[in-house]
């Protein structure tokens, strides 16, 4: 029996800022963004959108397809938490109409926590093969204005149904891990934007990749040549290119630049126009690979490197299941991305400054999202989520 990802669906906001616009206002060469960091657009959440609405929007097509009654556990990964106590997934549980004996929990370790959720979900399914676990990762990446991180913002959510004998990707049990206590990127409770030591964070990411790979080689019989494609955590797409170049050097794989690029380029397509979605980003990258590769990927092995600042890195592997194309949501994803609305720099600043307030007051929010669920307001310290 194999265990892994049976279905995958993502959601991002209907608003985006083109990084050419940002570059123009800043007096920066747009190529710094388009080529230097490899990003073209960044998603901006609507005024009535948060990690809960994005998560429910990502997951709705999966529970409609699979039946609400089959989900035994919902794991919600985020680093944009809305409450120190209550799990954001409980709101999603209600919005999706899941059964009341479904377990719900929220997980955190920066961008890595979706992978922790995926691995734990696989373990639960292995123990009880007739169960399905819904893993959702949802985040809004926010940095201070006029900082190097500003161009790497974004937002998105991904939902994955984990099951026995999955239709998309089976996940192998061997994993390579690396953990180190570092301050490369963090967000203390009193801040709505992350603090980041940008250049250092990229160095630590690369170090964690090397260490996680070395550990993976100790526990798994697989070597570099067993993989046809690689999915990396995607804070910006150039990071994955640097990571892959480093792994090729480290493993002495001796691949040409074209071959290296072929192993990762289709994973980058969606993220280039969405931006960093923290926990969701690597899995949106996987969706991009499965949906945009013309060649049949059936039976091909994928290497995954998940990274969460602070830091935890994990290298693991999965194999694409024959017939996977029948389980994709390709057209819906492409339609959603094509229907997004470009915003001006002034509108971007307005959305940036009008983030959901945490002042404990009474609030109603203007309708902005085109998703199925929205945050209507906050009253008596309670968020009010409604269908649209
Ligand atoms: P920066 O200092 O503005 O950029 O910040 P730079 O000056 O280093 O330029 C970036 C690249 O553009 C360079 O290429 C330049 O040469 C090139 P490189 O040397 O790196 O190959 N460049 C140009 N290329 C073409 N035409 C031009 C041009 N000008 C320059 N005209 C930085 C870059 C990534 C540091 C910044 O965006 C940042 O701080 N981002 C946020 C932190 C981040 O994303 N870190 C990534 C690793 S940590 C991680 O992935 C975890 C995270 O997702 C959080 C979590 O785990 O929760 C962030």
TrEMBL record:
Keywords: Transferase. The active site is at 79 (proton donor/acceptor), 111 (acyl-thioester intermediate), 233 (proton donor/acceptor). InterPro entries: HMG_CoA_synt_C_dom, HMG_CoA_synth_N, HMG_CoA_synthase_prok, Thiolase-like. Residues 2-165 form the Hydroxymethylglutaryl-coenzyme A synthase N-terminal domain. GO terms for molecular function: hydroxymethylglutaryl-CoA synthase activity. PANTHER family: 3-HYDROXY-3-METHYLGLUTARYL COENZYME A SYNTHASE (PTHR43323), HYDROXYMETHYLGLUTARYL-COA SYNTHASE (PTHR43323:SF2). This is Hydroxymethylglutaryl-CoA synthase.
